[in-house]
């Protein structure tokens, strides 16, 4: 089936999306609120923003089976875990290190798909995975010498990438039965509830924050989610999924540049070397998918990105 044409160059919205997702770690760093509170309100505001675009689809909720509700709950829990771990990593390590390691998500998805769905990777994909993991090792090794806590932050980002990879594998299984918009809306709502229960259990204050914090919470929903990943999902009507996946590799670069400008975080030699290996490895991995995409339609989107009207696959979220 021929893709519809776009009246403007796809590079324009693609560039907007690339810039938008680069602001996710910057906004997290600007907030003084606990990361569980940031994640809770990011999900709440995103759900509120999504509702007007698909109210009619809410009638399909009654058709969801008990088994699918369990999968939706698991997806929401792992998404909450991803946000909690990755956002917490920014309190311990640099923005560059955190986002470079987080970009390993496609590699973890590939490994999980092999064991869960028996998807066999090509030699090029395995090579790319190995190079990317070596790069992540360089990033972590370099941070050991900076501070004692930097490596712990790298590990939090690594575990956050694992959590969102599980999230995406659940999405691959369930999105064949549930519309993507409804799926994303429910998972975001469950993630919000997870954060709410966590904050209550730990005794974290959830209200009485200054205006600056509420602005950051709202911007986390609007900029990296709506103007970032929702734009990527919309573009899937016009460009290949690999193009979108490759574009999110700009997040570590854009975030690192912003961190240098706003927080004076300089990039170390180990970060440069490790980041280059991660990006090269992921490019090899994503390039190897292109021949298959030319002959097959795009898949459903992962749960981490709301998409009210598009039903194809998208790339990772920060």
From TrEMBL:
UniProt keywords, alphabetically: Membrane, Transmembrane, Transmembrane helix
InterPro entries: EamA_dom, EmrE-like
Lineage: superkingdom: Bacteria
Span list, region Disordered: 294-318
UniProt organism field: Paenibacillus solisilvae
Residue ranges of the TM segments: 12-28, 40-58, 70-89, 95-117, 124-144, 150-170, 182-202, 214-236, 243-263, 269-286
UniProt similarity note: Belongs to the EamA transporter family.
Location relative to the cell: Endomembrane system
UniProt domain EamA: residue ranges: 14-139, 153-286
Membrane topology: Multi-pass membrane protein
The protein's name in its UniProt record: DMT family transporter
PANTHER family assigned to the protein according to its UniProt record, in alphabetical order: ACYL-MALONYL CONDENSING ENZYME-RELATED, EAMA DOMAIN-CONTAINING PROTEIN
């Amino acid at each position: 089936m021929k893709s519809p044409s776009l009246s403007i160059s796809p590079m324009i919205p693609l560039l907007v999306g690339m810039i938008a997702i680069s602001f996710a770690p910057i906004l997290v760093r600007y907030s003084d609120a606990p990361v569980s509170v940031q994640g809770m309100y990011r999900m709440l505001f995103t759900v509120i923003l999504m509702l007007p675009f698909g109210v009619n689809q809410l009638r399909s909720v009654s058709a969801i089976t008990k088994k699918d509700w369990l999968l939706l709950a698991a997806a929401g829990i792992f998404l909450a875990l991803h946000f909690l771990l990755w956002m917490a990593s920014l309190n311990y390590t640099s923005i560059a290190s955190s986002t470079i390691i987080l970009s390993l998500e496609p590699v973890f998805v590939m490994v999980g798909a092999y064991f869960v769905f028996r998807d066999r990777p090509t030699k090029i994909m395995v090579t790319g995975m190995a190079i990317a993991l070596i790069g992540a090792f360089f990033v972590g090794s370099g941070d050991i010498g900076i501070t004692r806590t930097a490596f712990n932050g790298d590990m939090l980002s690594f575990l956050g990438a694992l959590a969102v990879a599980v999230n995406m594998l659940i999405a691959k299984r369930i999105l064949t039965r549930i519309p993507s918009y409804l799926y994303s809306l429910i998972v975001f709502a469950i993630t919000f509830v997870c954060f709410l229960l966590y904050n209550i259990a730990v005794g974290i204050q959830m209200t009485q924050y200054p205006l600056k914090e509420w602005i950051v919470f709202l911007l986390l929903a609007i900029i990296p989610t709506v103007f970032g990943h929702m734009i990527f999902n919309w573009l899937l009507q016009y460009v290949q999924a690999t193009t979108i996946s490759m574009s999110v590799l700009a997040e570590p670069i854009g975030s690192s540049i912003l961190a240098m400008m706003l927080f004076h975080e300089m990039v170390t030699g180990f970060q440069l070397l490790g980041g280059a290996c991660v990006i090269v490895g992921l490019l090899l991995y994503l390039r190897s998918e292109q021949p298959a995409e030319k002959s097959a339609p795009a898949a459903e989107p992962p749960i981490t990105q709301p998409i009210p009207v598009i039903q194809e696959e998208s790339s990772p979220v920060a």
